[in-house]
Amino acid sequence: MDTTALTLARLQFGFTLTYHFWFVALTLGLSVIIAWQQARHVRAGDPDDLVMARFWGRLFLVNYAVGIATGLVNEFQFGMNWAEYSRYVGSVFGPPLAFEALTAFFVGSVAIGVWAYGGDKLSPAAHLAMIVLVALAANYSAFWILAANAFMQHPAGHAVAGGRVELTDLAAVILNPYLFHQYTHTILAAFAVAGHFVAAVSAWYLLRRRHVRLFRRAYVQGLWCLLAATALVTVSGHFYGRHLAAVQPMKLAAAEAHWETAAPAPFVVAAGIDRQNRRNTWQLALPAGLSLMARHSLAAPVAGINDLQAEYAGRYGPGDYIPAVPVLFWSFRFMVGCSLLLLVLAAAGLRHARRGPAEDRPALLRAVLWTLPLPYLSVAAGWTIAEMGRQPWAVYGLLLTADSLSRVVPAASVRASLLAYAIVYTAVVLAAAHSARRILRDGPGGG
């Protein structure tokens, strides 16, 4: 195995997937916000709702286009850098992607074209139906993509025969309990991104005293979305973690730097992690905190990394089954820290908006604007935990990442394609930023 090619291939896939999902996360939530605003217009006839739906729709289209373009790249990588993965699990991994393309992608692509260009040719109700279809298709698309990923995290509905994994039960893949937790957590995180995006763009206009009446209301709407989604994503994350304790205990233990099995197990707030010697050199911990979080008990045992390593070595053969503990540990704390900060910020923004005009609080508006990267970085941290926490497995318990790499693609080719992606993606994001800047400059109604 070419370890350099493996490292570069993992880096390339992580880079392209994170970049892709940043755009997807916004479109998942923003499509629903636009549909809600347009529904308000159809129901109550308020022209401001239609003006804002069209404004957010222009920004949505930019992100949607980039999300589609970058998503296609990831599928090509399965046949190039990860050919052995595709050969071994393609019969299970492929159907969810096919369903996504043949249903959600097809319906969403047609509906968004009709919605974008048919506003003056359709009745208000028919035009609303198109954006509702777009929102449903986007979130339905995420379901199938995450169904494929959930199989990698917790395989279901399969059998190993003839040196490969074969699909035996599609219903088991769809009803995978891991998928329920992952989908709920992901969609709520997407709504947090969209809510903060709406609030931040509105803050930008309010700081410049432009279209104040329109964006004063949009600012409050975005903050409510951010507050509700962040609160719910925190709750869903708790139950997601409890599920990990049952199906991926190593991921949970690594994210908590929990080296030794303990009853009760402490929650480590901060620590100096010695990955090589498999211990913490120091730690600040809350007694029984991890037992309470993972088992809802102050005395329940939680398996530690060292015992799990010994168990996996006995079950799967010699090897290092411990993921990158420092990365997971600090990614989790960064994600939680971002959620707490965003909760406080959204609550403060709503509180002050009730007391007086939002534009009279420029410091708070700047805080909302300049913290816009936080939900995006939090989403990236969440995917880091999900994907790196599964290592060294590509498909948990079935296929190692090292055995998933194509046997014929040299490191030089992966390095060249990684460089090409970096250049092209930089050009794409600059073009998207330029388009978004023009939309912001023109404002609602083009002025």
Unreliable stretches covering 5 or more consecutive residues: none
Q: Give the helix/strand class.
A: mainly alpha
Could you give the distance between the termini? 58 Å
Q: How many separate helices? A: 14
Helix content: over 70%
Bulk shape? globular
Number of strands: 6
Rg, please? 23 Å
Enumerate the strands of the largest sheet in spatial order, edge to edge or round the barrel. 1-2
Multimer state: single chain
Task: Describe the protein.
The structure is a single chain. This protein is mainly alpha-helical and 447 residues long. Helix content is 73%, strand content 6%. It has 14 helices and six strands. It has helices at residues 3-44, 47-79, 83-117, 124-153, 170-174, 177-207, 212-247, 249-255, 289-295, 305-316, 325-355, 362-370, 373-388, 411-442; strands at residues 158-161, 164-167, 267-274, 279-286, 393-395, 399-400. A two-stranded antiparallel ribbon has the order 1-2. A two-stranded antiparallel sheet has the order 3-4. It has a two-stranded antiparallel ribbon with strand order 5-6. The termini are far apart.
